[in-house]
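This part of the workshop introduces the protein records we will be handling. A record pairs a protein's sequence with a compact description of its fold. Comparing a sequence with its tokens is the quickest way to learn the format. The record below serves as our worked example for the rest of this section:
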Amino acid sequence: MEFVVAVAQVNPRLGDVEFNLDLYEERVRAARARGADLVVFPELSLSGYFLKDMVSTVALRIDAPEIARLRTLSRGGAIVAGFVEETADYRFFNSAAYLEDGEIRYVHRKAYLPTYGLFDEGRYFARGDRIRSFATQRGQSAMLICEDFWHPSAVYLVALDHALLVICPSSSPLRGVSDDREQDDNARYWELLIRMYAQTYALFVVYANRAGFEDGVGFWGGSEIVDPTGARLAKAKYYEEDMIVAPVNLKAARRQRLAAPLLRDEDLDLTIHELVRIRDRQGAGGDDAGK
């Protein structure tokens, strides 16, 4: 399966869903003019990131008119949108939706909510409880939202669940600036992780970060599309809005998995056995070293 992926590296307006929907429509038109079959937007790009007490104000039910606009926009090509999802029992999730052909194919709810330093997601959002791949017209895919991607177990799970393409919408801030570097320390760490996961698990990674400033915090941009050998297919500008487009051929994952069959050789029973042992030890509050 070969198709063209675009990343819309945008600077959404905080708390203004209507404005951001118009921004989505403009960027999708621009991406399709460049041949894109799939357009990926950053984490919470329909609402802005540092929402704090605005979370409930900008939240959308799956049947909301704004989501219906996204469904319409997905006719003729797939879209990944980042938004605040409200459920029937009034919980709020940091979610990403994959839409194609006018339908919602899958919704991923962020499982790992950073609540340290400048982050306060655990105060406002409920935690997702599923990490899975899903079928699309363009091949088996998975979505991990920002901090999810920093947890090796999350990427491991979707790789074992047959994902060939991992999409990571992100709102990653600028941190650790050094005078002699083109990008900040946080950007360099992300780029290291993306290449390492792509090559280790032999899959494509589409990383969609945002740009601009909110509440005095800057976002470093730098979105990229990386193939299963760890090679960059496209790279966006740092710190400003941009759009990148690249062709993706999922057969490249097959070639890499033949050359390095690490997933084939994974021993699930061994992993599960040891994880259960570790979980039980933690539950007992003791140490079973040597058992």
